[in-house]
Specification:
The structure holds two protein chains of two kinds. Chain A is built from 15 helices and no strands. Chain A is an all-alpha fold. The N and C termini of chain A lie far apart (50 Å). The chains are: A mainly alpha, B mainly alpha.
Amino acid sequence: MTQIAPHRTSHVLQRVITFVILGIAALAIVAPFVWIFRGAISPSDAELYRLPPTLFPSSITLDNFRKVTTQVPYFRFILNSITVAGTITIVQLVTCSTAGYAFARLRFPGKNALFSLVIGSLMIPIQVTIVPLFLVMSKLGLTNTLWALILPGVFSAFGIFLLRQHFLSLPRELEEAAKLDGAGQARTFFQVMLPLSGPAMATLGILTFTYWWNDLLLPLVMINDTQTQTLPVGLVLLAGRFSTGSLGTIAAGITMAIIPVLIVFLLAQRYIVQSIASSGLKL
Amino acid sequence: MTDHTAGGVDDGSREAAIIAARGKKDPAGRGEGFAALGFLTPSLIGFCLFVLAPAIGVIALSFYNWNLLSDGMFIGLGNFVRLLSDRRLAEVYVSTTYMAVAILLVNVIIGLLLAVLLETKMPRWIRGFFRLSFLFPFVVSSSAVALIWRFLLNKDLGLVNYWLGLIGIERIDWLGSSTFAPISVIIVASWKTLGFSILIYIAGLQSIPNEIREAAIVDGANGWQRFWRITLPLLSPTVFFLLVINTISSFQIFAEPRVLTSGGPGDSSRTIVQYIYDQAFGSFDLGYASTVGITLLLVLIVLTAIQFRVSRRWTFYE
């Protein structure tokens, strides 16, 4: 017993240290959000700046949220963001799954060269090509329309690669059986392979949607008209329209941007965690 | 197959279908070729229009003096010569590299520490809570994150300085001094991406077979030895993956410095993507902005190539 006791105290100490470190890290992540939510329902800015900060405001008001919607076309921003991120996600699920399948399973001339080209383009981020992309959109007359934000997302090297890896992991016997049953390439793909791809498609869908929902650069470059703007730029516009004086309104704007994300995040957490983890393992 | 015959389908027609199916599958694979064409066309169109054409465009534009109002004038290597004498570009590259390396290290080192701690024994719901809290900022837009921190880091009214004041540290001008502005960008960008790195680490940790760890315990290795001799080598592909993607993404940072500090004071927290944006849409110097874009592309390619080469030496694959 005398030998076990010091071992046990060091073990307890270890666990305490573990929880203290994790706890501090979690607090540093969660506290700023709590502070912003609290600011959004506080009646005056003075409360946000009151030191030391209190957890609950003296009274609760929804006035800040109303101010947000009267100052900027906030619901328009949300609608635009959903349209852009949603369309890109749906389109990418189609283009990346078909292309990924072709690269994984079909034999055709020039396959390796084409695939190298796709992988090579992973190295060319949109930040590099933004200037000619802007010129292309402006020549096509698409700047200041949501098309300018949607079209650049149609092709995704990352998505093709992710789904190619997935299709490679499915057993070949499945397709052979389908072919034997007289199914053509299209039917094999849509009725046999795609139904087996739920988790991989969810992975791509979640990563794509988050990326384009949060993108700031493209809308900043392509869109000049407030009505066509997306949420990330909308927030910056909202913050720019006020001096630091009306923090409550900005806090309400941020809260309104975060709440839908939080709800989706909590509902789909298991998928999100899995999808990020698997994207790391598959690359 | 037996299911179908048992279901009463006429055996003769079934036979015919198999023969037909075999007939379709021609040995030259021409049918597959057509199918592949159909499957690839949407991606190929997108690739040509929105990746290939702009990529060629960047190279072409870099030889022109081009502003938004008039079409360009060919100036040969003029823009590339200008690169060499551009003092600001050098400064922006220094600050971008400084911030990118710091963000990278925070993600790779602190991410590993937190992931290892998260994998120790604890109740499931507590682990779930930690994991979700760490990950949440990753799904929130950078501009919202940066706006929140713009308030928290405010010199006179921000909470960060208030808490630091409680432990006797004087007010820091987080966003307005050239020393602390890049540090603020590092803190905020790392705060947003850390959960992602932790999650990738956890996936890597969980893929290490338990038997190896148990064997080490039986052999009398303590926790410290197990970490350095077993966990870390087996985790090296994950570390490598995080190094590559964090390098690429940290060099592309745009939203955080733009919203937090606008790149200032001076160019102390300006990133290269911000510089491209400013040159193109602030000064309307599209040709030069493209030339700067090419330098970023080269940096990314070289960094990735180096990492792949170095990794061959120390990455341990089973």
